[in-house]
Amino acid sequence: MLQGSFSSIREAFGKTLVKLGEKDNDIVVITADVGDSSRASYFKEKFPDRYFNIGISEQDMVNFGAGLSAVGKKPVVVGFAMFLMRAWEQMRNSIGRMNLNVKVFVTHSGYSDSGDGSSHQALEDIALMRVIPNFKVVIPADAAEVERSMPVVLEEKGPLYYRMGRDYSPPITSSLDYKFEIGKAYVIKEGDDLTLIGAGVVLWDALKAAEELEKMGISTAVVNVPTIKPMDQSTIEYYARKTGRIVTVEEHNVIGGVGSAVAETVVKTYPVPMRFVGATTYGRSARSQRELLDYYGITPKNIINSALELIK
Amino acid sequence: MEKGGRDGIPISIEELNKLKEMADRARRNVIKMQFYDQSIHVGSSLSSIEILTALEMKVIRDSNDPINKDWLILSKGHAAPALYAVLHEKGLIKEEELWKIQDISGLLQGHPETFIPGVDMSTGSLGQGLSFGIGVATGIKISKGTGRVFVIMGDGEQDEGEIWEAMTHAVARNLDNLVAIIEMNGFQLDESTKDVKPKDFLPEVWRAVGWRVFHCDGHDIAGVISTVDEAIKTRKPAVIFADTKRGKGFTPIENTKRQRTVPDVARQFLLNS
């Protein structure tokens, strides 16, 4: 558990994109002037004819991607999470409504763009994207899961929203051996008394919390749900039954995000008491993502406190 | 490819008369559609009848191959009844479907959907068609196809910011297989366009950005066809400003912001005309 070194999630994205571009000539990459920031520009170096920087124009980018997919291309639309949301209606009305094969890859989600302050910190996007029919939503836990999941994601037909941060990527899945499938949850650690469920880089905090809880004699499972939609109902139900208590962890508003999606599943399958650890408001600027996670309470300590509330 | 691809061949009087008859039938069918559903956008539809007839009957080359066919994107999706009436003339939509427009059991939706034969893009939310058209035109080019893309927009629609994003984008990509058509009927939903946001400057802006700009009377079928021919030949992104009248040919609402009348008025009008 917690082996390996910290790496950059956007670096993993840029490099994996190039590898996939070598295998599939239909992949085209479109960005709204954030090729360097997102590392999508690695694709440009290798395949300049299949790379489009269309300027600071997210709405145009989404519909441009929709048009390319309508003639058989496989567009990868790349932008900052927050600014793709100004094209939410385009994603809903063009990509989702026509069920087009467009993959929307965002970086700088959550508090990851720490220095740029509240305007750049996307804490609403999971809620917004999972309500669009036809859209799937995937959140890799770390750089290793980016490498593992991207080939599968680009093979999947239809609209998909893929949410990443920036550089902060603690090792969560790098030492694990599993085949990534869309719609499947993965158990990182087994336990009997309580289950921590989450997605993205904050699973690191969940694993830290689980270690501490074990020391207190509380056997804690940790489950990674990289696919928020469709949710892996059977795995969630299994752990609800097995442990009887769930705490969710996410780098997103606790309203409408990962925790809400898990709760919706739990009330349909096997209702158990739950607690939700996540964001409640916009971020300040800070020198690092970690500082903001600590400042806004997405920490092992708060996860432990939530767990203890359920255990007592 | 089937028909279309005229390459500037002059149109015969007989053929022109046939197209005018088709447009006239389509116009009457749109007016008649409001007997069955009183929420359709009759005024906006009647403004588009001749443009759609000219494009669908004389310009568009149909094919099942997405990169070797011409695309028609009705970005002003509320003119869907006109598109359906013209697609009926083309034999793609059955007459009985026209009367079931917006009925829950019918094929024809309030705004175009791609599951309807002959519809290339689901529209209805204004401002999105040109960007989609640029994506299609670019995809055709990088796949070495021969297809062309026609995007029909309204003048009110030009308020949307995405159109600015798209018009500069098309020029940057130097697309020569894309023709935008902007209908200048002078009205948007609430008021005349000049009372909402200025529109008169639009041709100058499109020209300044780098488009080849054309003008035509949007109700003159021969004029529309020849202007589209010219626009295609420029080998640059081309935009046609087509002067139209909202509610054209349906005097109870012609050249007003009104979208429709009551069925009795429409019935009386059709009987008398």
UniProtKB/TrEMBL annotation, chain A:
It catalyses: a 2-oxocarboxylate + 2 oxidized [2Fe-2S]-[ferredoxin] + CoA = an acyl-CoA + 2 reduced [2Fe-2S]-[ferredoxin] + CO2 + H(+). Its cofactor is thiamine diphosphate. Keywords: Thiamine pyrophosphate. It is an enzyme of class 1 (oxidoreductase). Its EC number is 1.2.7.11. InterPro entries: PDH/Transketolase, THDP-binding, Transketo_C/PFOR_II, Transketolase-like_Pyr-bd, Transketolase_C. GO terms for molecular function: 2-oxobutyrate synthase activity; 2-oxoglutarate synthase activity; pyruvate synthase activity. Heterodimer composed of an alpha and a beta subunit. Catalyzes the coenzyme A-dependent oxidative decarboxylation of different 2-oxoacids such as 2-oxoglutarate, pyruvate and 2-oxobutyrate to form their CoA derivatives. This is 2-oxoacid oxidoreductase (ferredoxin).
From TrEMBL, chain B:
It holds the Pfam family Transketolase_N. SUPFAM superfamilies: Thiamin diphosphate-binding fold (THDP-binding) (SSF52518). Residues 37-255 form the Transketolase N-terminal domain. Its EC number is 1.2.7.11. One of its GO terms (molecular function) is pyruvate synthase activity. Keywords: Thiamine pyrophosphate. Its cofactor is thiamine diphosphate. It catalyses: a 2-oxocarboxylate + 2 oxidized [2Fe-2S]-[ferredoxin] + CoA = an acyl-CoA + 2 reduced [2Fe-2S]-[ferredoxin] + CO2 + H(+). It is an enzyme of class 1 (oxidoreductase). Heterodimer composed of an alpha and a beta subunit. Belongs to the transketolase family. PANTHER family: TRANSKETOLASE N-TERMINAL SECTION-RELATED (PTHR47514). Catalyzes the coenzyme A-dependent oxidative decarboxylation of different 2-oxoacids such as 2-oxoglutarate, pyruvate and 2-oxobutyrate to form their CoA derivatives. This is 2-oxoacid oxidoreductase (ferredoxin).
